[in-house]
Amino acid sequence: MSDDFILPDLQAAILCEDVRAEISGQQTLVGVLGAIPTPNLPIGFFKLCLWTRWCGGSGDFVQKCLIYDPEEDQAIAQAEIPFTLADLNSHATNVHFFGGVQFQKYGTYHVEIQIDDEIRLRIPLPVIQVDAQGHPGGLPGNREF
User: Which class is domain 9-123?
Assistant: First the structure.
């Protein structure tokens, strides 16, 4: 490590179904996920994305993301992205693409974000049983996730 190595801050992290690159160079996040309501398991996603923004650091880094099952004994998906921050005023926007992720059981999964093998954030992702109309526990009108 050089003297100008400074571990960056995680400014934002959003789990979503897609990240689209616009002609303007901006990004559009589609289907932001806070929970996964489903009447049946397993439920699969053709694609899941984790959008992150890092700032306030300098150096070369590796961002690693893992999605753990409710027992947290195994990762059901993982990805890595190397990135560089030239100085404290620069930022890096990373997008992990997870293909073919399947959730096999109900419960709270965790999305873990690491940088250089240090955990920086854990996001809970509940997979919730709902009835065919989308009501948790079969209670009409109760849409709290």
Answer: mainly beta
